Amino acid sequence: MATAIINNQTLELKDGEQLNCIQAAQRIGYEIPSYCWHPALSVVASCRMCLVEVGDTKPDGTVVMQPKLVPGCQTPVKEGTVVIADSEKVKAAQKATLEYLLLNHPLDCPTCDQAGECFLQDYSYKYGRGYSRLQEPKNIKPDKDHIGENITLFTDRCIMCTRCVRFTREVSGTSELQVVSRGSAETIDTFPGIPCDNKLAGNVVDLCPVGALCSKDFLYQQRVWWLKTTKSVCAGCSTGCSVDVDQNEDQVYRLTPRSNPLAQGDFMCDEGRFGWKYIHSDERLTFPARRKNGEIRTRDWDDVIPSLQKALAKAVGRAPEKCAAVFSPWMTVEEAYMLASYLRGLSPKVKLALGPVKTVGEDDTYPKDFFGKPKEPVKFTIRAEKAPNRRGVQMVLNHFGGAATTLSDLAADGAAGKLEAIYLVGGDPTGWLESQQATGLGKASLVIVQDILPSTISERADFLLTGGSFAERDGSFVNYKGLAQQIGRSVRGPDGTRPDGRILWDLTGRKGLFNAAAVRKEMAEKIPAFAAFAQGTLGDCGVLLNEHGAPEAHVVAKA
Ligand code: SF4
Ligand code: SF4
Ligand code: FES
């Protein structure tokens, strides 16, 4: 085990661990400011914000410091390394660097989208001089509002850290961004006619440490200090990117990637970043319904849930083998567990099936080469499986050993008059039911639909349960490789909707308020594959489930 000294504190490094001075200082809780360095990008050491004093411990125990300050981002910490990051010399360098970076900066914080989460603001406050000695007029460069479909560039706020350029070269591989010109005239730009529109392009906005690259979607929508952040998971595909959902007054404003080495790493794709708008769709199903002969009898949850309990018990009592439920790969594992255990409690003969798992094309890996061909090593994958929790729901169904059936078979049963009751869970905002299937299923004596948007069967439902989007629910998703992560309720859904967990908690007759952690603990006791849920919480990064042999997509759980 190697030992280094950071600001007079001893730091022990694990065997084989490679840290630079910034990371080593983080370990002892000290911040070395940095702009151009990012753990997922190559090191260029160009901004000079991280300059520190560095030395080596010689065999006789003496310490020899290097005569000049060195970039901490580029300097490895090893046995005997001594780093001084809080000396007057270092502080003077930080002041000088910031003064230089701010020379031509417009200081337009009041109208800048980044204000409140800007490293130029924060570092100026913590490490800067507090005034500028520049007498001459500032060098004003024109803004470029067409860097990409979703990205705009406020050129004069740029500090030329080149994080954005390196991202398009090293991660997306698409290389749309470059540095043009030199000296105080240098700017970030695209090649003529080739905007930065790759599928990962939005990440350059997050990477930009200042307010130069901005998201057109978020621009001037909110001051960031009004936003409340909830840790969650993108529901766009089975990669299951960890995200932060930012909202104010029940309106989601943006999704940004949350770094998670167990999940996707540091980034997310634009499909997920901008694909949440359906949450606030005017089309959302609001208010539940109990219908008789097609007529709405009530829209009151206090009537709908007890009536549904009675109707389900009656149908299962009549012909349990003709009752079935279709589980959506958009359900959380807690929801799937509650519904499956409830129905199997009514009768072990009730059939359980996995609903359609949409796949689009093939897994899309990055970086790409100039011709769009994937390159190794893969740094990011947008998965073809466009559902967040196929694997988790399948694991739950495997435990309950549901009779092998499919949505199509159930539709055929319905068309042949062999279906007594069908409980359908939707949730896929891009649609999940073909009209022919809806016609067959609609012939069941009792049709229950739990969904967020209208489908070809929602009007036919005897019971319509208006659930929540992923941003309105607590629970967990299991991604393609078995990583279980919690999703968090960040907004309340429209009036009349309820988070699905709450609907199922009430339907299954549990007392009090829906508690996802309590369901997880129960699952840990009852299902070996979910033993890792024992604590009730999965932490910020989630837990890898020790589950083997979950069948691949489209395979329905067998008895
Ligand atoms: S636009 Fe932002 S990320 Fe790109 S070089 Fe300028 S400051 Fe850095
Ligand atoms: S890769 Fe998948 S999970 Fe990640 S942001 Fe994109 S759609 Fe969402
Ligand atoms: S962060 Fe080290 S030089 Fe930029």
TrEMBL record:
Residue ranges annotated for the 4Fe-4S His(Cys)3-ligated-type domain, each copy included: 89-128
GO annotation (BP), single: ATP synthesis coupled electron transport
This protein's UniProt keywords: 2Fe-2S, 4Fe-4S, Iron, Iron-sulfur, Membrane, Metal-binding, NAD, Oxidoreductase, Translocase, Ubiquinone
Gene Ontology CC terms, in alphabetical order: membrane
All residue ranges annotated as the 4Fe-4S Mo/W bis-MGD-type domain in the record: 227-283
Enzyme Commission number, as recorded: 1.6.5.3
UniProt keyword Methyltransferase, yes or no: no
Matches recorded under PROSITE patterns: 4FE4S_HC3, 4FE4S_MOW_BIS_MGD, COMPLEX1_75K_1, COMPLEX1_75K_3, MOLYBDOPTERIN_PROK_1
Protein's name according to its UniProt entry: NADH-ubiquinone oxidoreductase chain G
Species: Lacipirellula parvula
